[in-house]
Structures are given as structure tokens and as C-alpha cells.
User: Fold these one by one.
Assistant:
Number 1:
Amino acid sequence: MDQGTIVDIAQKSLLTIISVSAPMLLLSLIVGLAVSIFQATTQIQESTLTFIPKILAVFAAILLFGLWMLRTLSEFTLDIYGNINLYIR
């Protein structure tokens, strides 16, 4: 296996990881920003107030995007296994 193949596999892996984790991270970021604005306007400085909405947002993202994330990871895995004979040379 040459260096180009290794770089290609690594690039596909990182792109898959970023695309699969992006919905959860973005939704958590938006909820965290909304809670921070709420805390700033009401001057409630409870540190545990941010965790529950973020956890619920990530859970909702998993429910909404779970099938797509599973399909994306399955396609990547099948692509790797399908081309394994090219990789082990």
C-alpha cells in the first residue's frame, strides 16, 4: 500500500467523522448559545443549567439524524471492506 492510498483513506475517514458528528455538534452549539444568552439576560449563573438542554439537544439530533449517520458509516465501512484487497498489496 502506497502513501497516496493511506492519505486517501485518512482523508475519507476524517471527512466521514466530521460529517457524521456535525449535526450533533451544531445543535449543541446553538442550544449552548441560546442558554448563554438566557443566562446573561436573566443573570442566572447556574453552571449546571447548560448541561441538560445540551444533552437533550444531542439526543434529539441522534433521533433526527441517526438513520443518516448510520447509513453514512455503513457505506464507509462497506467501501473499506470492499476494497480491502487493494489495500493489503
Number 2:
Amino acid sequence: MAIPPGEILAEELEARSMTQRQLAEELGRPAQVINEIIKGKKAITPATALQLEDALGPSAEFWMGLQTTYGLTLARAARA
């Protein structure tokens, strides 16, 4: 089962009582970008992973690992 990294991001925000807009402001990114990541419409890029590391704490490698695992899971399902 593929878990989009945006689901984990949404859980992190909820645990911190932080809104998508607040995170977007902290990252200097449009709120739409954060919303699209959470909805699984946009991937976490290395640059975004570094920003999430600075803002939320989990390492950039953590965020990229989630994205890579999600992408591989989808690719394997499509291949099957």
C-alpha cells in the first residue's frame, strides 16, 4: 500500500497545531504548493525536503525517503 508523503506531512502539521498556510509562510512558498503536496498532487522535491527539515525537524532524507518509497510503490503497482 502506497502512503503519499503528504499524509505524513498533514499528520506532522496536525500534531503541531500548524496550518498549511502557516507552514507555507515559514517556507516562503505559496500555500497551494503545500496543499498539493498534502493531496498527493505534487511531489516533495529535494529543495522542499530541506525546507521541511528546517521547519519541522525530521531530516531531508526522511522526507525524500517517503517520496522515493511512494514513487517506487506506485511504479511497481503499475508494472504488475
Number 3:
Amino acid sequence: MSRSRYSSLVPALAILGAVTFLGLGTAWAKHSLFPLVGAQGTTAVRVGFSALLLLVVWRPWRWPLTRRDAGGIAAYGTALGAMNLCFYLSLQTIPFGIAVAIEFSGPLAVALLSSRRPLDFIWVALAVLGLGLLLPLGHDASALDPRGVLFALTAAVCWATYILFGKRLGHLHTGHSVSLGLAAAALVTVPVGVAHAGSALLTPGVLLIGLGVAALSSAIPISLEMVALKRLPQQAFGIMISVEPAVAALLALVLLGEELSPTQWLAIGMIVTASMGSAFMAQRRKVRSPVMALQG
């Protein structure tokens, strides 16, 4: 009986661990790498090392790859690279938790647009209201930097695009598509980082921190998410992973000292609730997807 109870806790603990490690890696990157190589350089070392780690772990050359799948992976990886770059650029001027909440509107939009259930309009309204409270509109225009918000919204669009491309690769092994996808993402982000930070990327401190950030924010979360995906229905996975904006906001408060207003916490809560509700309603739509959360 105790073993059964423990087994039931494994996927929940795996998702909580994945979200926490992702947040820790991103907070570490913002605190330690941004001052040294900027957002562009941080993205380059994070995505570059993540790609190397997953290529070593999965050795994707073991599987055959058609020309069509290669094109799909290139598109998937490009969207992934652009998503990471825009997300880190947004962190330069807006709080981590808010950036994640805005970025979450991308996958939430994909989920809601694929539904035709009247009840889903409630989640749409809740998400829109939450975003409306976060975005610098009207008399609150000075609350958040518009440029940072624009980068976060662009990251949301890229995340939605990445999900759509990822679904087309559902017939491939997850390790195959994710490792090659990250390699393609590195081809997008590394040149941008090199152009911005130059030789600073090769200093021992940057390389060491970059490797640690890559492990915390990619290798470990992806492994934990795979543990959870094997033990949970997709809708349950979606509901649990929806806590990511709230966890990010808490970690940013503790580690970075980024305090949010009550209105901003309320907005994040609305987006988390909308995401959970959407995932819950999706339980009748059995759609398989190996797409991982590789943001941040």
C-alpha cells in the first residue's frame, strides 16, 4: 500500500522538481550571467550547453531521419531558439514571474483555440483578464517596461509555434526530436550571443555557470518531465505544469528580490487557473504530444 502511494506521488514530485529546477536555472542565469554577457550571451551558453548535453545523452544519430522530418526539426528548433532568446531579453526589464506568465499565454492560446467547448470561453476570458492586468495599458502604462512585455509576448508566439511544429514530430522518439531541436536552436542563438558578447563567452566563469544553468534549466527538467509524462495522462500533466508562473514568481521573490504587487499576483493566479482549467477540459480530447517545456 505504501509503495502504491509512493508511486502515485512520483509524477507530481517530478513535475514540481522540473518546474523548480527550471526556475532555479533561470534565476541563476539572470543573477550571474546577465551582468557578464547580457541576455543574448546568456541564451547562447544556456541553449548551446543544453544542446550538447542532450546530444550526448540521446545520441540522435542512432535513429534514421527523413528529409521531411529534418525540415520539421529545423522549424521546431528555430522557434525554440527564438523563444528562448526573446524570453531572456524580456527578463532584462520585467520580473521573472511576470515574464513567465505572459509567455504562458502562447501554449494556453494553442490549447484554447483547438477547443470548441462553450466552457472554454471562461478560461479565455480569465486568461485575457489576467494578461490585461499585467500588460502596461492605460493608466498603468508605467508599471512594466513595454519593450520587455513585447519580448515576452513574442516569446509566447514562438512557444505556440514551437508546440505546433513539435506536434508534427510526434512520431519521432522524444529524445530524437528534442536533442536535434535544441541543436537547431543553438544554431539560432549562439551566433546572436557571439555577436553581442564576443570573447567574453569563452571566459572560464561564464562557461562554468553556463554549464550549470544548462543542466538546471534543461537537462534535469526535461528528464523529470519525461518521468511524469510516462505516468500521467496528458491533461493531468498539463494541469500540474500550469503552476510554473506561480513557482517562477515565488523563486524570483526569494532569489532575486523581485516583489510583485497584489494586482500582479492576482493576474498570475488568473493565468495559472485558466491554464489548469483548459488542461482539465482537454481530458476528453485525447491528443498525444511529446513536446517538452524548454522555455527559460
Number 4:
Amino acid sequence: MTEASVLVVVAHPDDESLGCGGAIAKLARSGAKVRALIMSAGRTKNAGNQAIAAAKILGLAEIQINDFTDQQLDNLPLAYLAEPVEAAIALFQPQIVFTHSGSDLNQDHRAVFQATAIACRPVPKSTVESLYSCEIPSSSEWGQQPFAPNTFYDISEFLEIKQRALDCYVDEMRPFPHPRSQEAVAALAKVRGVSCGVAAAEAFYLVRRLIK
């Protein structure tokens, strides 16, 4: 994974840390250039600053926060919503892209998945080799279809970093037993870890992979 280019495309600040914060930290520390594209600045005025603070902890090489309106992304034409994703792919030329699940309860998440799938379509000369959906606590498990992962990242050594990044999101994290509590995040990581024989893991659904 050394020197790979990785792009994380999510709807809101905190989604990147909740969905793949451990993988971001692990990939960044392995030498990959990991960048995040956040489509909406979120529902609070401090969300952008919180995202920047979390990015530093995770080791993101760059973070871009767009100004689409929170909880209105599904009202935008998909071609329009896909434009910044396509621009980021053209600029950063990622081999790996992480985004939301298309079955999440949150409508912004579903819209971003569709826009990212459009931007990652397998056209000639596309650099994208792998497209993954991540699970977001309080959205993926509440969707109409269960999140069914087929790929796992061992984050046993990076769970603490993920949790420190989540500590930046004081407006979004909740007390236990909410799914967006630190206790629930750690519990989910352990459950996903048990699924693949490690202490802690993040789970993903592999949408498409090209093996060259």
C-alpha cells in the first residue's frame, strides 16, 4: 500500500472518522497519501474545524469540505453531485476509494454513494482500482437492508487513534448506548475484529475491484 493514493468521499464531517478512521490512520502511516472529500460542512458551524482537527490526528494528507447543504444532497441532480468527486479523482488519481453504503438510512449518504459510483465508473484510463463502502454507526445498521461486509481492515493498533479523532466531534458524538458513543464504536470494532480473527477491525463492502 506504500505510496498509494486513497480518496475518502463522505457526506458529513465525522463520517470519515466513524466509517474508516482506523483504515485512514493505518494507510497513512504505511506511506499512502490519504485525502478526504466531505460534501457538506455539516449541521453545526464548528463541524469544519472539528473535521480539520480530526484529519490531523488521522494523518490525512488533505481534506476538502464542500458547501452543499446538509440533509439536502439527495435533492441535487446526481450528475451535479458527482462533479466534485470526479474532479478529486482526476486531481489525486486514487487507486482506492472509500465511500458510504448505498443502503444507509441517511439520505445524504445514499446520494453520495451514488455520486461516487458514477465518478468511479470503470472507464478507460481510470486510476480507481477498488471501491469500498464503509459502515456508519447510526445509519448503516438502521437502513432497510443490513450492511453485509466482505472486507475487513485490522485496526487493532489504530483504534485508539480513531477514537481520538472522534473526540474532536463534540457536536456529533453521543453518550452510551447511542451507536455514535465511544463505547459503541469500540464494541463494533471488536465485533468486526472477532469476525476476522483480530482484536479490532473496520468492515467494508467491496463494490468493485480491478486486479491488474
